[in-house]
Amino acid sequence: MQVLLVEDDRTIVEMLTDFLRGEDFSVTAVDTQQEALELAQEREFDLVLLDITLREGNGYAVCRGIKELKEIPVIFLTASSDEFSVVTGLDIGADDYISKPFRPRELVSRMKSVLRRYGRSQSVLTLGSVTVDTGKGVALKNGEELFLSALEYRLLLLFASHPGQVFPRTQLLSALWDMAGEFVNDNTLTVYIKRLREKIEDNPQDPQLIRTVRGIGYRACG
Predict the structure, then answer these.
(1) Domain that holds residue 28
(2) Is the pLDDT of residue 1 over 90?
(3) Hey, which of 104, 187, 197, 202 has its CA 20 to 30 A from 36?
(4) Does one domain contain both 95 and 177?
(5) What is the tally of structural domains in the chain?
(6) Secondary structure class of 20 (helix, strand, coil)
């Protein structure tokens, strides 16, 4: 997925670029109105993340100009969270509005929701005999619905989205922490991996879908 990030805060640009690349997004960043509009006209993007205050120009003009060019989802990402700013952004065509400071994983979730509305997102993922319909938030094994907790579903979504990738335990802990909104320790992660395996593996004692990588973490295989 190609993302155009229009933001003049270099710290946010660097942080978001690194994070989104880890979530399989390709990020192009600019910090002026003119650059944003030129790139939007020259290249194809799946989504635009847009601040209101830019080094030159403003985000409202960028949003209006992009929406006149083509149908690209736009999410405002800004510290201007007063009602007037929100309503103005939505009235000129923005698809969502996220106030700073924000949690990166919440942002990714909102991005994926907008992309699904535009039909730009893969809605069904597979991991062996398990399928995950991200649009409906439902997981099935051999056609039978799995009843997962929110954190179990989040773990499954991570693994199914990145087959073959090794996830360090620290990365999984961070994902669970963001999802739960509270501290999740190493023992809790072990418990959730065990519970998820019991629901998706044919033989949880010999897991084939979520394998342990000793000394590092886990890898999805399917």
Answers:
(1) 2-117
(2) no
(3) 104
(4) no
(5) 2
(6) helix
